[in-house]
Amino acid sequence: MVFWPLSLMLIIHRILVLSVNGSVTDDFSTVYFALRRFHDGVPIYNEVYHHVDPHYLYSPGATLALSPLGLLTDFDSARMWFICLNAAAIVAGLGVLTRMFGYALSSAVYPGAVFFAFLTEAVRNTLVFSNINGVLLLAFAGYLYCLLHERRWAAGLLIGLAILIKPIFAPLLFLPLVKLNWRTVGTGVLVPVIMNVVAWPIVPGAGDYVTRTMPYLGEVRDYANSSLPGIATYYGMPWWQEKFWFFFFAAVVAVGVVVLLRWRYTDPLLWVSTTSGLLLAGVFLLSSLGQMYYSMLLFPLLFTVLLRRSAMHSPVAWIAVYCFLSADVWFSDEWLDLGRAMHYLKPTVGWALIVLTITVAAVVWWWQERDGRAATASEPPTVPAHPIRTPGVPHPDRNRKDDDDRLQTDQ
């Protein structure tokens, strides 16, 4: 009664006001007109990459998968349908996560999660910029749900499609790999490979993706880029300093991932949600391009706050959440340089903090369990208060009258 009305008003506002108004950043137009060129038989990888406009960066296989969107000939209608689809996918994805964590959709957890999500910068800008991240959140949530419920083919199909659209999901194949779940790993690899093989002779100018687009994807741009390499490029960080922080945080991620393996069988829900969050936050922080609205993919990690044990039980974790999900603008008329730095560094600091928090929490859990086992092993054996009963021999404290009565009854 509290959260659903609030959530409904937020959803309506985000779709009918913010999204309709649009923004200078427009991810939809680039994709839509590229798909229209695909249907018209015109080469699609003809971008001028030294301009700062959004570019079409999807692979030929992803182009083929998204091609039905280009069949809609009216641009405004296609954009509104796409925005509504992503909004619905976000709501559905949060529903999947609610059920995954053991709560009914009729509980306050589901509308509370929707309310919180639609307050974030990630959801707002996904809808305003009109990109596909809402659908990817649903695919990601479905992937985790299928992993936990041993639906291996479905999990592989979902992660394969997600990797096809955005390769940043590829590290998540680590989750089934360490459990030797070859069906999920194989399907997750084959889906993007097969789609690209099928699309290569169909997509006009597919070869340009390798010669022109892929080199651009490897470059670190100095605008709209919150990753560590992007921030280092923007501020002119010395080379040695950038590499030091890069390898430091890469080591932090690696340590956290290894230590969390301890719970892959004993607490799979915690392990899957926390490890996937750690891997994705590491990708956002260390890759050549990290944009703040990617943080929507950390929602499963945030749901672990509902568990008995979670890295999200730390206040530092929620400072990190504020940094990478808050829509607050820190530009200041009084403190120009400080305000600009805080605004640009907000998501970078948030991703760095959440990576550190998860790894420290995992190491502390491991250490506590190690000390607990050591203490138990060093304790002397406990002497029972009563003699141990031998099968078939009556207990010495048993009432003889009860034995006699039972014997008489048997006779």
Automatic annotation (TrEMBL):
* Main subcellular localisation: membrane
Where is this protein found? Cell membrane
Gene Ontology cellular-component terms for this entry are: plasma membrane
Q: Which UniProt keywords apply?
A: Cell membrane, Membrane, Transferase, Transmembrane, Transmembrane helix
GO terms for molecular function, please? hexosyltransferase activity
Presence of keyword Cell membrane = yes
Q: Can the keyword Membrane be found in this entry's annotation? A: yes
What membrane topology is annotated for this entry?
Multi-pass membrane protein
- Show the stretches that span the lipid bilayer: 80-97, 127-145, 157-178, 185-203, 244-261, 292-308, 315-332, 344-367
Q: Which residues form a coiled coil?
A: none
Region Disordered: start and end of each range? 375-411
Family, per entry: Belongs to the glycosyltransferase 87 family.
- Organism listed in the record: Corynebacterium meridianum
The molecule here is called: DUF2029 domain-containing protein
Determine the domain of life of the protein's source.
Answer: Bacteria
Show the Pfam families listed in the entry.
GT87 (PF09594)
Q: Provide ranges: composition bias, Basic and acidic residues.
A: 395-411
